[in-house]
Amino acid sequence: MAEIQQQASGGGKGGKKRAKKMSTKIDMTPMVDLAFLLLTFFMLTTTFSKPTVMQVTMPVKEKDNKDPTVLKASDAFTVLLGENNKIYYYEGLLDATTKPELKLSSYDANGIRKTLLDRRRVNPGTVVLIKPDDKSKYKNMVDILDEMNITDQKKYALVPISKADEDLIKSSGL
Amino acid sequence: MVDLAFLLVTFFMLTTKFAPEEAVVVDTPSSTSELRLPESHVITIAVDKDKRVFFGMDDDEIKADLLKQVGAKYGVSFTAAQVQAFRGVASSFGTPIEKLPALLNLDSEQRKSYKQEGIPSDSLNNQLIEWIVTAQSLSRKQFSKPAYIAIKGDGDADVPTVKKVISLMQDKNINRFNLITDLETKPVAGK
Question: A11: exposed, middle or buried (C-beta count within 10 Å: 0-12, 13-18, 19+)?
Fold first, then answer.
């Protein structure tokens, strides 16, 4: 690539000696090499995109919660996140007198998402209560929050799991 | 072609921003959210799968003040060299304040192999919230807006730790969080 300018063989005519013309060609190879090296370096080290975030706004913690929001049992839909990536749900509220039927679901498209959409078609005012078990993974929590975004469920709340809910999971044997 | 190469070199040189040193490997879960994390004024709280909590802050302007203020609260003082070293460490660290001077004395190679135990965040010794509140108030003073709080949890992190961090901040009236996730394509909701 690097060219060596051949000395023009001395003319035989022996005319006037002219100032020898310098070649205008510069060898660019090393510079181009360097350019590509830098290009590769910056391309590989650059951070392509910022990670995405999911916004969560939690309610303001009341110092003394005298009258918490009362939720109608007919609007309530509870999702329980269990260990080993299990997910359960029941409709209505759990209290001393009524014991709703617990059902096992899954995180895929035909699981909880379908249930949620069906439920919303019946009752558009559904409020989803998400109760992550202490043994559930953070991934599960993100997944279910994501599910809320996908199904466009506006009203949902992250609620600490109660003893009764844990017992319900245990006794159901699912 | 060479012109193009140089154009690209210039482009990458100007746009590149070196990824900050992460003290902990966190494998974030994915979500369909398309919101991007802002470039600056971000406080990152990382939770790894061993329940360790890490704190990170990216604004160079307030790092020195942050270190001094939190140090003063716990009666730990830092030398000028340590404050300087904190600039590199502040993007993510997880040591209790008592052990921070020791971490800052190490050089960057040794720091990588140093086992960080996580910032204490229990009710007896709650240094995490101290870092957050101080960083938040400094950010308010410096940039006249509060920092953006991002929680970077590992997919295998347990819920109680993440919830504890969230409820700590709720106690301090910080109610807006951002969970850092990877992008996944949005499935079509419906039939």
Answer: exposed
Question: CB-based burial of residue B26 (10 Å sphere; 0-12 exposed, 13-18 middle, 19+ buried)?
Answer: buried
Residues of B in contact with A143 (CB under 8 A): 29, 31
What ipTM describes this predicted complex?
0.74
> Whole-angstrom Cα distance, residue B55 to residue B82?
18
CB contacts of B28 in chain A (<8 Å) are 51
The answer to whether B39 contacts chain A (CB < 8 Å) is yes
Inter-chain contact B36–A139, Cβ cutoff 8 Å?
Answer: no
Q: What is the pLDDT of residue A174?
A: 67
> What average pLDDT does this structure show over A36-51?
76
The answer to whether position A68 is within a domain reads no
Task: Look at residues B129, B142, B146 and name the one whose alpha carbon lies nearest to residue B73.
Answer: B129
Asked whether the beta carbons of residue B163 and residue A32 sit closer than 8 angstroms, the reply is no
Q: What is the 3-state secondary structure (H, E, C) of B82-114?
A: HHHHHHHHCCCECCCHHHHHHHHHCCHHHHHHC
**How many Å from the N-terminal Cα to the C-terminal Cα in chain A?**
74
pLDDT given for residue A65 in this prediction? 58
For residue A6, is pLDDT > 60? no
B89 is in which domain, residue-wise?
Answer: 28-183
Determine the number of helices (DSSP H) and then strands (DSSP E) in chain B: 7, 6
Domain membership of residue A106 as a residue range? 76-172
In a domain, A67, yes or no: no
Instruction: Look at residue B47 and give its three-state secondary structure.
Output: strand
B145: in domain: yes
Residue A40, domain member (yes or no)? no
Say how many Å lie between the first and final Cα of chain B, rounded.
Answer: 51
- Kindly state the DSSP code that residue A113 receives in the 8-state scheme: I
- Compute the distance between CA of residue B31 and CA of residue A139 in angstroms, rounded to an integer: 10
Domain tally, chain B = 1
pLDDT tens string B52-75: 888 888 777 788 888 888 888 888
Most confident of A64-68, B33-37, B140-144: B140-144
Confidence class of residue B191 from pLDDT cuts 50, 70 and 90?
very low
Residue B20 has pLDDT above 70, yes or no: no
Closest CA to A145 of B50, B180, B36: B180
